[in-house]
Amino acid sequence: MRVKVCGCSGGETPETALTGFVINGELALDAGSLCRGLTLEEQCALNDVLITHTHLDHIKDLAFLADNIIGIRKAPLNVWGSGFVISTLKNHLMNDKIWPDFSKIPTPDNPTIVYHTIEPEKQFTVAGYRVFPVSTTHPVPNTAYVISNNDGSFCFTGDTGVTDRIWDVLNATPDLLGLICEVSFPNMMTDLANISGHLTPKMLHEQIGRLKNRRYTVYLSHNKPNFRDLLRKEVAETGVENIHFLLKGEVLDLRR
Length: 256
Ligand SMILES: [Zn+2]
Ligand SMILES: [Zn+2]
Known about the structure:
The structure is a single chain. The protein is α/β, with parallel strands linked by helices. The protein has eight helices and 16 strands. The strands form three sheets. A seven-stranded mixed beta sheet has the order 8-5-4-3-2-1-16. Helix 7 crosses helix 8 (228-238). The radius of gyration is 17 Å and the shape is globular. One zinc ion is lined by residues 53, 55, 138, 159. The site of one zinc ion has 7 residues, from helix 3.
């Protein structure tokens, strides 16, 4: 499984890009940086996008991706998310007010985007990948995705505060090749992390400490750019091993 990091930051600057990953060039996870991180050709090659939640840093490029691929792709782009995600995209983003409703153009019979609603804890299949969705703690409903094919499994938590269920699911996933988790705010901002549903290094340490017999790397994303150096220092101070802070543009080659 090859995972391209289009963006992995909790803020946008010339050096950092918002959340967006692509598995094997075809399956995207969140859409904060898919246009900035992919050539037009690569954007057109995407068939499916899984959305964790509706915060703007995870969805904004759906709008611009749809605009870039209209008239070029023959088949619609499939957008997958919880009922809350799909209804919010329809009613508040691509609603013919903020941006066109790409689920109706160029024609309702042959649209640019087709929406698919998923339910937590119900496995579904996307382009040959088995996907298991798990809810996590965040001010809006967030879905972590465990994605599996013959290579093994991979998990992206999306945004999450302190949570329980995902760690049990991952402990029951013996072929896990890697995990992208978030760490957003430094320890001095624990109160803000709690009310905004994010993790500090101390909270991250406690959370991933629940993973049993971990041999895979935990990749860290969603650092707020103004605290990136402090977050690295505080994560190092926890002593947690086999951790990697993601970099924009890098490609993870996950294999057994
Ligand atoms: Zn969020
Ligand atoms: Zn976010």
